[in-house]
Amino acid sequence: MQYKKRITIDKIAKIIFKSTGYLVLALLGGIFFMLLYNAIAFFLQVSPLDFITGSQWNPTAAEPAYGILPLIVSTSIVSLGAMLIAIPLGVGTAAFISEYANPKLKTVLKPTIEMLAAIPSVVIGFLGIVLLGPGIADLNNLPNGLNALNGAILLAIMALPTIITISEDAIHAVPQTYREASYGLGASRWQTLRKITIPAAAPGIIAAVMLGLGRAIGETMTVLMATGNAAIFPKGFFDSVKTITATIAIEMGEVPYQTTHYYALFAIAIVLFFMTLVANLIGEYFINRFRKYHAA
Amino acid sequence: MQHKFKKLAPIVEWSTLLLSTGLVCFFLCVILYDIFTKGYQVLSWEFVSKLPTNGMTQGGILTPVIGTVFLTLITAIFSIPFGICCAIYLNEYAENTWLTRTIRASIRNLSGVPSIIYGLFGLALFVQALNFGTSILSAGLTLGLLSLPYIITTTEEALLRIPRSMREAALAVGATKFESIKDVVLPASLPGILTGIVLTLSRAAGETAPILFTGAAFYITNSFGNINQEFMALPYHLYMLSTQHQSIEEVRPIAYGTALVLIVVVFLMNLTAFYIRYKFRNNEK
């Protein structure tokens, strides 16, 4: 091939590669502006104050109410409940894999965690309906088990792989000398784990929890199927809840384009976007801190 | 007493960790056991090769199976070239400027954006602005966008493993930069890239939220191969059968069968990815 032609191809290729890089930037910008544009259209019709402080979400009533509070409380109950279950289990499992399991057991446990991560969320939600829901109903004498507790348990299962994998990396990355110094002072294995290894790995573990939380907040199908979706202000774990994600999933399919209700769903989506963004940014901050700390 | 407790303490402590690990494994076992035992009863060749009939209370799941295959193909066609090109740019061309760092930060943030928001974006961009309508094309492109950050990240990791000396050797014998990438870097990193692609597509195949309003349909008759039409997909089918069908109890066995097929498809894709990774590592040694 001629030299000139090869150079031209080289130049064109560079332009193509470069433009894809910029397109990715445009994608995030596009998502953000799409949400913002439609949310602004909503706030032109409904005052932001009513939106933030309203305690009722009922867009289809004769006098529509667009209060996001019950949705935020629902999302918080379910995802914080999930964290209550997933943090001790996840950190415990990570500590076990990193500190106690022998190499043979590790080669079994790691694929197990990856398998758990690979199960589609709709399958987990399905099990919430057919397995966990009836179980919760029987144990607590409820008419049905589709409530916040059900969603929290399922979301915990979905957040566990994230929490375990990142925590395990963090615990594993703690220098061996720390542990040896602790043993040298006469500390037991357990004391070393609790007082030395886990505190040293804390930034990594916090990152793991935040990324797991981000995943739980943004999860749609599981909560949509397992939490009952009643439009009430939730008071506890045995109440049915309707999260932000579930509200979008249910109502976007039924609402006519470019009505107030349509724009309202984008307004709650932008709130969801920022909730997950904050969780992920905090997670990323701690991951970087952990890397810096242990690279030095 | 004191002495006895001291002897017992490590065992108790060790068991709490073992218990949490056991519980995590128990979750997976329960999930798999329930789906496999109950799904197995309806699973047969007829189940995957017959169309749904009688308001989906009878027959098989051929339409959603084919829908998922086509959907994943569209996702792949869109996201693989796009993702690989972007990863090449970031790893081979880009210098460490604020712009590059912004692109990297946006990729990380994109992978944290909830899938339902991708669904909204697909609805606003593909269905409405570009006027593709609710179709398998819109849904596939939406899933493609969702897959992009994962493909970029895994491809970049694969490219990073290729030693600098290989690129320099290619340049030294007169190859242009593009030729060194095309003929040396890409072939060498292919197994790593493939692993990432298969894992990402397995995730995309199981996604439901992004296709809710971009084209998935409750029930359609046979209309394969038309990208402008709505479609049935396995995860959406499972969602519909377990929550929206008028006789939920009656279709429960079919729902279990659908869940089983979906899990098997996803696990097979994961196994393929692990196999590629395993073989690649052995070759490297």
TrEMBL record, chain A:
Q: Which SUPFAM superfamilies match?
A: MetI-like (SSF161098)
Its annotated compartments are: Cell membrane
Gene this chain is encoded by: pstC
Residue ranges constituting the ABC transmembrane type-1 domain according to the UniProt record: 72-283
Please give the name of this protein. Phosphate transport system permease protein
Question: What organism is this sequence from?
Answer: Sphingobacterium puteale
Q: What function does this protein fulfil?
A: Part of the binding-protein-dependent transport system for phosphate; probably responsible for the translocation of the substrate across the membrane.
Q: Which UniProt keywords apply?
A: Cell membrane, Membrane, Phosphate transport, Transmembrane, Transmembrane helix, Transport
Q: To which protein family does this belong?
A: Belongs to the binding-protein-dependent transport system permease family. CysTW subfamily.
Signal peptide position in this chain?
none
UniProtKB/TrEMBL annotation, chain B:
> What are the residue boundaries of the ABC transmembrane type-1 domain, all occurrences included?
65-273
**Is Transmembrane among this UniProt entry's keywords?**
yes
Q: Where in the cell is the protein located?
A: Cell membrane
InterPro entries per the record? Answer: MetI-like, MetI-like_sf, Phosphate_PstA
| The keyword Cell membrane is assigned to this record | yes
Q: Name one GO cellular component term.
A: plasma membrane
Q: Which UniProt keywords apply?
A: Cell membrane, Membrane, Transmembrane, Transmembrane helix, Transport
Q: Where does this protein chiefly localize? A: membrane
Which is one GO molecular function term here? phosphate transmembrane transporter activity
PROSITE patterns per record: ABC_TM1 (PS50928)
Task: Give the transmembrane region(s).
Answer: 12-36, 61-90, 110-130, 136-155, 254-276
Topology class, membrane: Multi-pass membrane protein
Q: Name one GO biological process term.
A: phosphate ion transmembrane transport
**CDD domains in alphabetical order:** TM_PBP2
Q: What family does this chain come from, according to its entry? A: Belongs to the binding-protein-dependent transport system permease family. CysTW subfamily.
Can you say what this protein is called?
Phosphate transport system permease protein PstA
